[in-house]
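Homework help board

Subject: predicted structure for assignment chain

Our instructor gave us this sequence and asked us to write out the predicted structure in token form, then describe one feature. I got the tokens but I'm not sure how to describe them. Can anyone check?
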Amino acid sequence: MKGFSTPLLDRALAKERERKEQRRKEFLEAVFQALEELSHEVPFEEAYIFGSLAKPYRYSGDSDVDVAFLGLKDEDFFRAMAFLSRKLGTEVDVLQLEGHRLREKVLKEGIRWKRSG
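My token output:
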């Protein structure tokens, strides 16, 4: 049996995929901006965005945001999570990399953010 051709569907799906990827990139910039603002409120050394937001074509608008910190003090943990969640309007999962089991994976695969200036 011969397959059927779906060029219109293929083009529509490709266009939607590119639109979602553009939204991911724009949201990633919003996360960077929120981290910059957070760095003026809460001290930390570096942050890493990981998970689906860090992977091209993997993020959807329903995904949460995963941010890992180096140098974030325990007493600032919930403040940082609340700040980012409020600023970004979505759930943000925060972790401290010091001694965390995901440390090496996040450092290798995550997108590093460091305060400008």
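Reply (TA_rk): Your tokens look well-formed. For the description, you could write something like this. The first strand starts at residue 46 and ends at 50. That's the kind of observation they're looking for.
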